[in-house]
């Protein structure tokens, strides 16, 4: 962040909260000489200093970095692509479950017939 921007923010915010430089220095752990240097728009200001000053004044820090997005954002999947993906998953599962002869290697479970009930037309 540019020292001029930080100096303007610091001067404006410090005036709004009514904090003296000595109290700001004590509350933030930033040396008074550093605060004066910022207010005089000299030197380089690092993010940790800005965050410490903002915390001591109980305010949100200014925007430290801007995020630049290059290119178009990714597009959400279409219904067709979701169907294709599902179909490929099913085919892959079928290949994994099939035996060497191509038939299902997993048999369907059929519960045994209940005792005491016979199907009509059959004799014992």
CATH class of one domain: Mainly Alpha
CATH architecture name of one domain: Orthogonal Bundle
Helix content: 40-55%
Largest sheet: none
Q: Please count the helical segments.
A: 5
Tell me the fraction of residues in β-strands, as a range: under 5%
Broad structural category: mainly alpha
The unreliable regions are: none
From the spread of the alpha carbons, the general shape counts as: elongated
Blueprint (SSEs and pairs):
Layout: H1 3-17, H2 21-28, H3 32-39, H4 47-57, H5 79-97
Helix pairs in contact: 1-4, 2-4
Q: What does this protein structure show overall?
A:
It is a single chain. By secondary structure, the protein is mainly alpha-helical. Helix content is 49%, strand content 0%. The model has no long low-confidence stretch (mean pLDDT 80). Among the domains are: 3-57, 434 Repressor (Amino-terminal Domain), CATH 1.10.260; 78-107.
């Amino acid at each position: 962040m540019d020292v001029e921007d930080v100096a303007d923010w610091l001067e404006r915010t410090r005036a709004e909260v009514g904090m003296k430089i000595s109290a700001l220095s004590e509350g933030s752990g930033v040396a008074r000489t550093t605060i004066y240097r910022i207010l005089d728009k000299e030197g380089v200001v690092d993010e940790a200093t800005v965050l410490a000053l903002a915390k001591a004044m109980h305010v949100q820090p200014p925007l430290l970095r801007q995020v630049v997005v290059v290119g178009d954002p990714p597009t959400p999947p279409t219904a067709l692509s979701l169907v294709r993906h599902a179909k490929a998953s099913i085919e892959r599962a079928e290949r994994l479950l099939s035996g060497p002869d191509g038939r299902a290697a997993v048999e369907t479970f059929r519960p045994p017939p209940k005792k005491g009930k016979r199907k009509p037309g059959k004799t014992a």
